[in-house]
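Tutorial, part two.
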Amino acid sequence: MFKRELLKKKYQEMKGCTLLINPVPELRKAYLNMNRDIDSLTRLFNMYQLPNKLHEFDDTAMSIYVPSFHQDGKTYMLSECFSINIDCNMLKKEGTTQEQFENIIDIVVEKLSVEVLDYIQFNLTPAHVCQLLGIDEYVKNYGKFSLKDFILYATGSQKKFCEKLNISKSFLSEMVSGKQEISLNMLKKMHKIYPLFPVEVFLNA
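Running the prediction step on this input gives:
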């Protein structure tokens, strides 16, 4: 049985899933145009009747992450590889049926992607996406996924991240900037709240 069929059948059991894709030109253009035309991605998702609260990272049914790497002080996006994250709990909360979820998967596969690179039945961190794509050389040569990357992916704001960890904004800012080392106890705390937090990335720093 094809992987997408297995994925669709597990809708009621899953908290969330990630589809790793090579995006169609239409999706790539809409995403890259977001800075100039914030509604371009929303319009594209509306066209296919997909959940379209795309500019929030908390309390949204779908979001998009584009792997990036750092070189010469600049950030470069690997725009040929997108990960589309689907919050199944949020879909269920919004009343999305099994049939509607199956349709969402089919649309992402057939309309938004040239090729589906993999299916994972839980939400992925940027570090995991990087590993799946086999782009470790980018991490090795140009830098690694940072705490700032993870905060954006996990909550969308440093304020929410601070609230969940019960730490001050200034303390988090120092960790993000590298002025404050991330202690082992803090890594444990992050991992407890976010089980997929890529602890190994920071342990090996």
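Residues 3-137 form one domain. In part three we will examine how such features are distributed along the chain.
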